[in-house]
Amino acid sequence: MKLQNLVWGVLLAGLTGCSMQKMAGDAVIEYTHDVAIPYLMAQGDLESACQMGQAMGPLVSSFSRVELEPEQIGIATQMASGMCAEMNQREAELERGRALYENRTAAAQDATIREKQAHRVAALRMIAAYDNAMATYGDMSARCPKFDNTTDELLSLLGLASGALALLHDFNSEKSVEISLDVPVQIEKSASCFDDARWWGMPTALRASLWLSIPGAGPEGVDPLQAMEEAARTGDKQGVLLARAMLVMMAGTVGRHDVLCRALEEIPSRDSLDADYAMLNAYAMGLMTHQADLAWTKERGYRAPFLRPSCPVASQTSMDADKVEDLLDGLFEDETSEAPVEDVPATDAEAATEQP
After folding, report:
1. C-alpha to C-alpha distance for 326 and 51, rounded to whole angstroms
2. What is the value of pTM for the model shown?
């Protein structure tokens, strides 16, 4: 029966002028859109998602050679593969922080180079996701599209978020990708097509992140960080932490340690998060944990406590290597020194001889 179906499929493809590659491509793209993406959104394994993006991205994109349009799926696969580059970048950045803490100059320089290389790869992949969104839905800064379903609307919003992240990565790679200066303007205008109440405060968070990055870009009288804090609270109520993660990341970028620490303290409990978007929450927690890790590494030389992204408590000051060594030496000296003689009650004879 299976052989018969295959034969009919080949005959049908020949009669209609369709190639087997095109039929296979249609099936893969449809399956990825309707099943794979919603499934992945409900999974919290970020590393698996990024590896899927790296593996499936080239395959899906290759169907453009058989006259298909895989750009829509390319939004998700390119963004996911960009997450892998971000993971490499974070580890290099933390290694640089540890090397600086320990005064290892050569190691710090090497980590800095690896960090910039990873920033570049992340920028290339993230801007590809943004470009795919523009190819699929058009220039949203000129006209807000009408979406057929929730998945399409989500993909377009994630495409904008990828563009904003690409700008940050490009800046940190010495602008090696040379992303057009038109992109931030397009993202800022396009974000207004989305409703904060429906999409976890992300539209405002995206726009405010660009207001912070480009002096004078925001509306007069609006504090971008305050706008992001309000957006983060909106996302918290809906159980998706992307807006809070944007707040934490941008506060760290502009050196607002007070805002960063407060935003970390206000992370809601895991029980309150939307299980349907576990992947996005895992990504958001990764962004926030990295900022916490940077703060701890700078102060203590190691990461933030496990599963507790926070800022180091100010009263618990860090101890440098010399102080640690002095403390250990003192402990060893105490162990080897002669124990003090305890005072014991004098006997009657001793007491008599001691009296004048």
Report:
1. 47
2. 0.82
